[in-house]
Design brief:
The protein contains nine helices and nine strands. By secondary structure, the protein is α/β, with parallel strands linked by helices. The chain folds into two domains: 199 residues, Spore Coat Polysaccharide Biosynthesis Protein SpsA, Chain A (Alpha-Beta Complex), CATH 3.90.550.10; 45 residues.
C-alpha cells in the first residue's frame, strides 16, 4: 500500500526539519513524500534540496494560504491513503506507518490519536471512538491523525480555501454527511501536533464554524445544539470520579457473579 504524506511549509525551517526526519525515519518505506512550500525565505528551500532524494515531489512558490497549499499536494498525490503532516507536526515514532497497516485499513477515513506537548510532558489527545454525523459536527478530529482514502478526492473534492482554519473539519464533515463515507478509529498514536500553528486560534475557529453552520436550517442547528449539550453532560458524568468508581465496582461484581 502506498501512503502519500503531504507537508506544507512557510518559513518554518525548524519545524520542517523535524517533520522531514520523522517521515524518512519510518520503518515502512512505501511512502510518497510531497512538500509544498509557500516560497519561504528562511532557508527552508535549502532544507528541501538537502533531502531531495527522500522527497517524491516538491515545489516552492507563493500560495493563497495553507489549504491552497494542501490542495496542491492533493493534486500531485497518487497514494492509496493521504496523510497531511504540516511542518512542525511529526509522526509519533518510526513505527507509526508499519503499525497503521497492521490494522488492515479499508475504510474511507481511518484515524488515530495525537500527542501535544505541555511543558516537559506529552498529553495524549484521544479522538472519538466513532464518527457519526453528530460527533463530526461537534468534535474536531485532528487532521494530523487522519488517513484519507485517495478516492475521496477523485471526484474533485478539495479543501474550501474560503475557510481560514477549519476547511479540513468541513471536508471531513461533508465526507461523513454528504458522502456517507466509512470511518474507523484505531488505537494508535499517529502524530505529535504542533500547537503553535494558526489552527490553534480559537477565535478564528469559532468564526469559521459559525459561517459553516449558516448553510444549515434552523431546526438542524437546534438539534445540533441539543446534541452538543447532552454530549457535554455525558462526558462530565463519565469523567466523574465517583461514577467511575461505581462502574468499576459494578463491573467487578458482574464478573464475580458470572464465575459463581
Amino acid at each position: 500500500m502506498l501512503i502519500s504524506i503531504i507537508t506544507i511549509n512557510y518559513n518554518n525551517i525548524k519545524g520542517l526539519k523535524t517533520t522531514i526526519r520523522s517521515v524518512i525515519d519510518q520503518s515502512y518505506e512505501n511512502i510518497e513524500f510531497i512538500i509544498i512550500d509557500g516560497n519561504s525565505n528562511d532557508g527552508s528551500k535549502e532544507v528541501i534540496k538537502k533531502y531531495k532524494n527522500f522527497i517524491n515531489y516538491s515545489i516552492c512558490e507563493p500560495d493563497n494560504g495553507p489549504y491552497d497549499a494542501m490542495n496542491k499536494g492533493i493534486d500531485r498525490a497518487v497514494g492509496d491513503y493521504l496523510l497531511f503532516l504540516n511542518s512542525g507536526d511529526y509522526l509519533a515514532n518510526n513505527l507509526v506507518l508499519e503499525k497503521y497497516l497492521k490494522f488492515n485499513p479499508v475504510e474511507d477515513i481511518v484515524y488515530g490519536d495525537s500527542l501535544i506537548k505541555e511543558g516537559n510532558r506529552f498529553k495524549r489527545i484521544k479522538m472519538p471512538k466513532t464518527l457519526t454525523i453528530g460527533i463530526a459536527l461537534t468534535h474536531t478530529i485532528n487532521h494530523q491523525t487522519i488517513f484519507y482514502k485517495k478516492t475521496l478526492f477523485d471526484d474533485g473534492s478539495r479543501y474550501d480555501c474560503s475557510y481560514k482554519i477549519v476547511a479540513d473539519w468541513v471536508f471531513t464533515n461533508k465526507a461523513v454527511i454528504n458522502k456517507n463515507c466509512s470511518t474507523r478509529h484505531i488505537n494508535l498514536i499517529i502524530s505529535v501536533y504542533d500547537t503553535d500553528g494558526i489552527s490553534s486560534d480559537k477565535r478564528l475557529r469559532v468564526e469559521d464554524r459559525k459561517r459553516y453552520f449558516e448553510s444549515f436550517d434552523d431546526k438542524f442547528i437546534e438539534l445540533r445544539n441539543d446534541y452538543a449539550l447532552l454530549n457535554a453532560q455525558h462526558r462530565l458524568l463519565t469523567n466523574n470520579y465517583f461514577i467511575k468508581l461505581m462502574l468499576k465496582v459494578y463491573k467487578t461484581y458482574n464478573n464475580l457473579k458470572g464465575n459463581i
